[in-house]
Write a structure and sequence with these properties.
- This protein has about 130 residues and is mainly alpha-helical.
- About 60% of the residues lie in helices and about 10% in strands.
- It has helices at about 5-15, 20-35, 40-50, 55-65, 85-95, 115-125; strands at about 70, 100-105, 110-115.
- A three-stranded antiparallel sheet has the order 1-3-2.
- Strand 2 and strand 3 (about 110-115) form a beta hairpin.
- The chain is elongated, with a radius of gyration of 23 Å.
- The two termini are about 45 Å apart.
């Protein structure tokens, strides 16, 4: 099967026939689509969605957003039913993904959501599908 065989069949089904120039035009359109999709940013975006795909990390982001400010790392212990190590690991991944910021004050670390995390949560809330 050639690289464009299925595309040729699609074009033929849509317009009744398929000419080489039809295929070339559609491939050019698809190349433009690839450019418009800005696929160079995929790794960053996948990291963000990957960070939110874990229940503990997602809970932490939700809690930080609801706190409307900072929470100390120690304050997650009573809020999230996982080990301190799991909390620290989750916060590290969320920080790496650009979803939370941290600052150190003496021996304590404080965390807050970033604008990116807040925007993602808002979109999720605004587009929630009723079940």
């Amino acid at each position: 099967m050639t690289e464009t065989e299925r595309l040729e069949r699609l074009i033929a089904d849509q317009v009744g026939e398929c000419r080489a120039e039809d295929v070339d035009a559609r491939v050019a359109d698809l190349d433009d689509l690839r450019t418009d999709a800005d696929l160079d940013r995929i790794d960053d975006h996948v990291a963000v969605f990957g960070a939110l795909s874990n229940e503990t990390r997602y809970r932490i982001v939700r809690l930080l957003a609801a706190a409307d400010g900072e929470l100390c790392v120690c304050e997650f212990d009573p809020l999230v039913d996982v080990s301190e190590s799991a909390i620290s690991h989750a916060l590290s991944e969320l920080t790496s993904a650009g979803l939370v910021d941290r600052r150190k004050d003496g021996k304590w670390r404080y965390y807050r959501t970033t604008e990116r995390a807040d925007a993602l949560l808002e979109v999720l809330d605004d587009t929630e599908v009723a079940r």
